[in-house]
Amino acid sequence: MASSSLNVLSGIAAAAAGFHGEKVSSSGSVPGLDLGKILPAVLGEKAGGAAGILGSLASVASKTGLLGDSKLGNLAGLAGSFLSVGNASGLSSSAGGIGGLASAILGNSGSASSLGSIASLATKLGKTCSSKNELLGMVTDLGKTLKGQGGVSLPGGSTAVKALDGVLGNDAKGTIFKTLLKGLA
Predict the structure, then answer these.
(1) What is the pTM of this model?
(2) Alpha helix (H) residue ranges in 34-156
(3) Number of helices followed by number of strands (H, E) in the chain
(4) Which of 22, 62, 21 is CA-nearest to residue 41?
(5) Which DSSP helix (H) or strand (E) runs through 175?
(6) Whether the Cβ atoms of residue 72 and residue 35 lie closer than 8 Å to each other
(7) Domain interval for residue 47
């Protein structure tokens, strides 16, 4: 289940980039949303700060290069402890709108083309919004759809999202990513 958690988290990052109007690179990385920095920050906070067991694990992993971009697959175990994915019920890949985007996130393989498709879908949806508040409302709805019909949960949601402030700051894409995660809480 951990690798599917990493794929879903990657899909969420791709959707955040798409809502911001950006594309996923041909390597599959999402500029400005580095999971190698996000996961240790959140897990350290979730486990009681840097002194917590998970925080120490993340710190050691970071220092040894485990979290480098070329080894993103090694984050699967860490992602599974941050985000859990259950059985999706009621989501169809043929659905349009938020349901279709949620289905694409849940069914993605983590490949660059899959993440690129998610970003493109999110961009199209985001262009239908006439204001920042409307966009953030749509992003929250996506998080709620992933949680309710997709079986995705974020244990310790508000604490985990708060831990991202130090890593992501308050730029637009980081705000979208955090808003989407808040929808899961």
Answers:
(1) 0.80
(2) 35-46, 53-63, 76-82, 97-106, 112-126, 132-148
(3) 10, 2
(4) 62
(5) helix 172-184
(6) yes
(7) 2-184
